[in-house]
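Inputs:
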Amino acid sequence: MTKKIKKLLIANRGEIALRIIRAAKELGIETYQIYSLADEQSLAVKCADHSICVGAARATESYLNIDVILQVAKDKEVDAIHPGYGFLSESAEFADRVIQAGIIFVGPDGDVMRKMADKSMARQTAINAGVPVVLGSQDVLSDVDNAFSLAEEIGFPVMIKASAGGGGRGIRIVSNPVDFHEQFHQALAEATAAFGDGRLYIEKFIKQSRHIEVQVLGDGKSAVHFFERECSLQRRRQKVWEEAPCCFIDEDTRQRMCHSAVELAKNVSYRGAGTVEYLYDELTQEFYFIEMNTRIQVEHPITEQITGVDLVREMINISAGEPLSFQQSDISMKGHSIEIRLNAEDPFNQFMPNPGEITNLVLPQGLGVRFDGQIHAGFKVSPYYDSLLGKLIVSDATRDKAINRLMRALDELEVDGIKTTAPLFRLLCEEQEVRDGRVHTNWLEHWINNDNALKQE
Amino acid sequence: MSEKVIVSPLPGIFYRSSAPGQPPYKEVGDSVCEGEVIGTVEAMKSFHSVFADQNGTITEFVVTNESEVQAGQIICCLSN
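Outputs:
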């Protein structure tokens, strides 16, 4: 059926490149892996049917170099390009140019990306689709006095957000009304400098919230969800531990959350895999739209584990023009899955990056254990890219059992030669508040700064 | 023979200026004071300043701009 795609180019690196190669191989698709000079020895290059060096280690000269990537795609006559996550995955320009070159882009088109990348436009789209948003400005604010009266109406504390921001960047929290004017002017200057776009909006700040997100797939006509993931354990707004499902919402909330994610996807005729992110206020049990990510996410495996669906395979099939192979009633979840991000960082030294050569590696095995990684003994972890070495994913019947299995798997894991975040997760498994799920998006940061075990050694 | 040196605090990519197009923090012949920034090391998308740990005058940059460094590798030499 999918014969529309015979050759797929992977415009990414690391574990996600390998993940895409695996899905493509199982579909009988020939794989073309691009790589930089720093990644010559990578598993993705070894596993792909063909590999093509596209430039120097620096991402702007290789993985972000649209001209070179498109040239390779044309030379090799590939049918489709998968962008993975990060790099060009949310570049509307890249998506446009891939399509203009007559090549399939595995993901939504550039216009949908633009709509979701702009935070105030995304917010408006969410409102139109009936998705709850945090109390805040309807439009972009440029006038500080209007902004201030709106902030008073909403009630402090408020967040001033850059419209061009996202992923935790370009956010200011103002607790005290007297600080508002100064903060607003600073935010304006900062947004202009950082994003070349000074458009701001404000939202009510919710002190303790969980990060819960819903996985969706759309084929342009219809959309379905694959339930939610909880990703409240974050450091510097980067997720480090994710779970599916979230055990701390009731069934009614789950249904409403998943339903509104589907409505949003349908509203923009979404094609491909996407994630609708929400903030969940435990006190009021209300949830609010944060943003939609228009790509496959790092933490997609936990959803695959509880639903049994290969999301990367599905997104390739959708991009080839196939309709969704599921109705909502076909999708169910079973058990509990946890993913931890094994990063090359030293948790005992302020998470200092730790590139270098892995001299010895033992990966955990056994029932309910999955490792999606890019590492092997002898692998040199490059300083040029992010610190993700791999993702340890464990699944079991219940959350409690999954945590026990995670502890067991971490005991089996050995990485020598570089420092990793594995010790952080061992400590988290033993932490009663994690065990009880009494966490929120600022919990981990606070715990790291106050936990003595991490400060020793 | 006890030449004074400044070493990289971590492995990564060494830069002599704060951003592309910006002038270098220091040139050969410049004097440095303890605690002054002489460069930046980028590792895995995060940036870390390299501080002088003593006073002196820079006699040589052993590592060139935008090249890879190891932790503890000599970045520059100082004289009194």
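Remarks. The first helix of chain A runs from residue 14 to 26. DSSP finds 16 helices and 22 strands in chain A.
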